[in-house]
Specification:
Distance between the termini: 17 Å
Order of helices and strands: HEHHHEEEEEHHH
Radius of gyration: 16 Å
Low-confidence stretches: none
CATH topology: Mannitol-specific EII, Chain A
CATH class: Alpha Beta
Largest sheet: 6 strands, mixed
Number of domains: 1
Number of helices: 7
């Protein structure tokens, strides 16, 4: 099924989150601080790591993750080497690791964009996460450019931002693959 390299056959409604929880927690902390609670927000680096942690959780229903903590560490280490932000409000944290059973892709977005060291300096509100075992190079290298190519279109990005249910996200990706 996924061997043919169709993004829309790998991403599932279970690996899609239309609103990340982590930025909502930061908003709560901001409100507390404004009310005199003295709550501190994490640094931008800590924020990125918290988002990556949530992205790993999104992938858990795929059954692709052998060890959640180690996949998290691999993604964080990959992000520290170079930002996975593409610009236009998009980041694609990705890694090949022995702690992945198979290739998995997840999607998440936030209404509260996050600084992610993007080349265009825009904060990120759309996230795709991709993990694969190190021996699955062919499929990984076929899907990565397809995903990046799909996201180059403003119409696609806006459709992803306005989708109201996970099934819409899959339909948008499927349309872009056609």
């Amino acid at each position: 099924m996924a061997r043919e390299g169709k993004l829309s056959r790998i991403i599932t409604t279970e690996t899609i989150r239309l609103e990340l929880n982590t930025p909502l927690e930061w908003l709560r902390k901001i409100e507390e601080a404004e009310n005199g609670a003295g709550t501190e927000l994490p640094s931008p680096r800590e924020m990125r790591e918290q988002i990556i942690g949530e992205l790993v959780e999104i992938l858990l229903p795929s059954g692709a993750i052998r060890h959640q903590g180690r996949v998290f560490t691999a993604l964080v280490n990959r992000e520290r080497k170079a930002s996975t932000a593409l610009g236009h409000g998009i980041a694609i944290p990705h890694v090949r690791t022995g702690h992945a059973r198979k290739l998995a892709i997840g999607f998440a977005r936030t209404n509260y964009p996050i600084h992610w060291d993007a080349p265009d300096k825009r904060p990120v509100d759309l996230f795709f996460v991709m993990v694969a075992p190190p021996y699955d190079d062919a499929l990984y290298h076929r899907l990565w450019p397809k995903l990046a190519g799909l996201l180059q279109y403003e119409q696609t990005r806006e459709a992803l931002r306005s989708a109201t249910e996970p099934g819409e996200i899959i339909r948008i990706i499927k349309t872009g693959e056609s």
